[in-house]
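Exam revision sheet. Question 4 asks you to relate a sequence to its structure. Input first:
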Amino acid sequence: MNSPSEEFLEQGISQQNLRKASCLTVVTLAYQSLGVVYGDLSTSPLYVYKTTFSGKLSLHENDEEIYGVLSFIFWTFTLIALFKYILIVMSADDNGEGGTFALYSLLCRHARLSILPNQQAADEKVSAYVTHGPTETWQSSALKSFLEKHPSFSKGLFIFVLLGTCMAIGDGVLTPTISVLSAVSGVKLKITGLHENYVVLISCIIIVGLFSLQHHGTSRVAFMFAPIVAAWLLCISSIGIYNIVRWNPHIFHALSPVYMLKFLKSTGTEGWISLGGVVLSITEAVFWPVFIVATLAAVVGSQAVISATFSIISQCCALNCFPCVKIIHTSSKIYGQIYIPEVNWILMCLCLAVTIGLKDTNMMGHAYGLAVTTVMFVTTCLMALVMIIVWKQSITIAVAFLVFFGSMELLYISASVYKVPEGGWIPLVLSFIFMAVMYIWNYGMIKKHEFDVENKVSMNRIVALGPSLGMVRVPGIGLIYTNLVTGVPAVFGHFVTNLPAFHQVLVFVCVKSIQVPYINEKERLVISRVGPKEYCMFRCIVRYGYKDLQQENYDFENKLVSGIIQFVEAEEDNTDYKPTSLACGELGNLDFDAEDHTSTNSKCRGNTEQSSAILETKGGMGHSGSSPLKAESLEILRAKESGVAFILGHSYAKAKKSSSILKKFAINVVYAFLSKNCREPDVVLNVPHTSLLEVGMIYYV
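Answer key, structure tokens:
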């Protein structure tokens, strides 16, 4: 029985295993949420009141207008934050995970919209892949059918998801900038002669300090920040109560939505434009203590979006939408808390560039508003699809949800779009850059997979070579890494053609992601046999979720050999299933005629339903039973003792000569640059350099 911490390491914190967590763990997470989640929400009053009443609207700062703005704030928080997100969107979690990609992952599983090319029917049997739910309706069936028949619409949905994702990453640049600069700018109220450049310099120093702390991990940073947020919440609530009693006890009238209409009527176009910056304001007599707390709280408020950006990039890497980067899991107890060094420093540089370049919180506020409202609208659209396809609700309910919340968000977006020349262009430019990177990388990876499929070696050719494969079989195990889940990769054809010797045990290893957040360790490996038994060739598919740990501490070699041995033993000993049908099923996938194989194995028949066995591997090398290991298992163990070699194919993409200039730039420049500078597969897989052999190939797209 695994301990709770081991459960977290294997599966992460999800709704199912959260019930098993100790009370201390839950309390710890709740405490840490103060330093991450609530920090972002509570620091909004620092800057958006100033943004709302900027421009010509500064001439309308009377009670009527203030009531109107406060009414907008209250009902925006109530309707969007409370009703939409807490009561509806959070119910559409993907095994405990949320966000744009989590919603898209749900849709992909239920409507077969997968953006990953090497998916199999066996993947749908993973426990986290569960698609059971309410009975299928004609509306959900019709929508699924429409998506399947119109791939262009599916691609458009994918681009729409990328837009929301990239806007969220842009939020990770803008939130630290506007929060810190707004808080530091407050000092000019007391020191009126302070030059703007000093404010920018102090803000930059704080931003550098904030990003320098990230390598300590979300857990430690949250523990350090939580008391600051608690102090900040205490400050603004106390000051708020004092101001209400002292200055305007009638402020509660603003809770009436009537004041929203009065505000728009009295302010006209300027009032509509100001909606891009609607939020509460603060004033205080105890300036310096609150100023210090506010500055610290502004730093804390940035932590939420920084942590979220790390999580988003991690998901994008797993789903082939972003180049591989180094992902460090910073907690041994709470799974999912990560740190990405490259992304951290890129965010810091972008934050510094925006701070130094703009120096104006109003312009930053306009940019921030467009980024946030766009993410909200993308979420609303995805939720409408989830309601129909996943929850099996009627189209009427989904459309009502879309119209009600979408209209509010479009109102805010329209106000923010009007401010594009005054800073709103920043998230658009950032999103365009990130979208271009994601789309080009995804396109290149898809073309690479198509190249591998088109150039895989025929199984008939392999069988024709005989059990020796036309070369000397030397002691040891050869692991050939490939993106293919069926067939023999082209890289093996190079060895068959050019090298005089190869290992006595060959394993084709495919490491792939599935569109679920986590894969249980017991379902990690899928072992099958390739070709006739005497060829001693196997396939191992290693499956990960988009939030799973693919790190150096994974004891892969021993688990792989243990899995193969268990497969061999089960193939020979287990009378409940027919082991030869496993080989037939695999050979059927490899375009090999099962009837021709009958002469090699007379027991083989046409049953190809089960081509692989999902094995429970616990890292041990021993046999679970009391009987001795079979001859083939002993041979595999001896091969393991002789050494393991790793063979990786290194593919280089080139655009065809007939391609357009834009495509040549995207493939030959952008994709090539990303491929050269991303984390190499051998590093991700922790392959020892002394046992590594790389084979280069060029493919044209």
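Marking note for examiners. The chain has two domains: 47-129+156-445, 456-571+633-700.
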